[in-house]
Target: Fungal lipase-type domain-containing protein
Amino acid sequence: MLRKRNVLKFVKDSSILRPGYYIAIDPRTKLVILGIRGTHTVYDLVTDLIALSDKKVSPKGFSTHFGTYEAARWYLRHELGLIRKCLEKHKDYKLRLVGHSLGGASAALLAIMLRKKSKEELGFSPDIISAVGYGTPPCVSREIAQSCASYVSTVVLQDDIIPRLSAASLARLRAEILKTDWVSVLEKEDWKHIVDIVTNAKLVVSSIQDVARKLADYAKIVTISTSSDAIKDRDHLPRSSEVLSPDGKEDVFVPDDLFLPGTLYYLKRDIEEINGVEDESYTLWRGDAGENFQRILLSGNLISDHKCESIYYALRDVLKTLPPQESG
Model:
């Protein structure tokens, strides 16, 4: 919804620790906007994977999780000058940082960094800065998450995996998978449902070799007929000790939790049957991510709910339920 002439800078290609982005002005809402793209290229994936082994939050309350901290620092160093010039030219405008996925975390962290600077350092008031992230990964300590609630918003669609994805939640998922009696699950549940879950789970935990190996074995089990004795033969499944670690010792370490920044806006999917046809609608809930986003939900929608078009569709549906704005 921006005219081409209002886009002052557009960097399509990403590089390591710097996702694609644009800087623009929006005369309708009187905003200077820095928009940061989410994971889209191989370079972005490198950014995502940096510091996955980092299990601690820095003294400042930021995490290097997904490399978003370094990405935010890059924008701070290289684009603050252009942003300052835009705000000097448009005196009554505010600064809005926006992003999806990886870009949402970078936008939130950058807003937090800028808010801590003085008016003299920035060249404009820090009070005019706000950030909105869509499908943002957890990237700050609990204290920082709460302290930025007045100027950072995080929008999450239903089962989106990314806002729940951290080293700690992966460790919990790993433990959950190992404790699950998959033989009983496979005997009771419908096959398509199981295939969807296993397929998504393999994508989520592919970086954890032992869990991925076990899920691969489950995927093979799913393809076997329900009448096969192999499903009921527990000896065909890898033993927990074998899966947990090569030397047979269990790894019980759980990393520090990370949290979603700011105020949470949760897009909840509602499905009802109307004249024999399923109708999908959405409602918007406001609240605190808290403990509800510390666990990964293995569902058939955990990846599709992260897509930009899915979030866009859900937000459009929510807008249909809002009362009309009064003119003037």
Observations:
- Residues 49-55, 206-216, 218-254 have pLDDT under 50 and may be disordered.
- The chain has two domains: 4-163+258-293, 167-225.
- The first helix runs from residue 42 to 49.
- Residues 305 and 311 are 7 Å apart (CA to CA).
